[in-house]
Amino acid sequence: MRPLVAIYRNPSYSPLQHGVNDTAILDATVARLEARGWRAIKTSEREVEQGCLPAAELYLNMCQGSLAAEQLMPLECDGVVVVNRPSSALNCHRYRLVSGSATAGCRSPTRSFTLPLRRSRQRAS
User: Fold this and answer.
1) Tens-place pLDDT, residues 104-120
2) Among 9, 52, 85, 120, which is least packed by CB within 10 angstroms?
């Protein structure tokens, strides 16, 4: 059986119902792959942050934090199949997104406005 590692997101990134949804998505994906002959090793984002990462042919990555993503980067650089690449997750972090957008020539607003909302009046019946 071919090994895969399923990495579950840190609950702090998926509050309330999102955590249940994230887990359900990864669990369903793992179940389908196991039915096709894969052997799943389940781990957490915290384990990855601590450098505990089992060897596998396939990684299903739900990590959102930069520390875990940095730990996964060597796999991506070595051509290992990582679904939800760590570089993509890292590039969504605000500080990288802003600098990357500027480098690409995307303009950003130089000032912001706060507009008051008008209350709608209910009609008398």
Assistant:
1) 787 776 777 777 877 65
2) 120
Contact 38, 2 (CB under 8 A): yes
Q: Tell me how many degrees the CA angle 25-41-10 measures, rounded to the nearest 5.
A: 55
- DSSP code of 53? -
What is the C-alpha separation between 64 and 104, in angstroms, rounded?
24
3-state secondary structure of 27: helix
Q: Which of 25, 24, 32 is nearest to 4 (CA)?
A: 32
- Nearest CA to 47 out of 76, 4, 10, 12 is that of 10
Query: Is the pTM of the predicted complex or chain greater than 0.85?
Result: no
Give me the sign of the Cα torsion angle 105, 71, 45, 4.
Answer: positive
Q: Reduced to 3 states, what is the DSSP secondary structure of residue 21?
A: helix
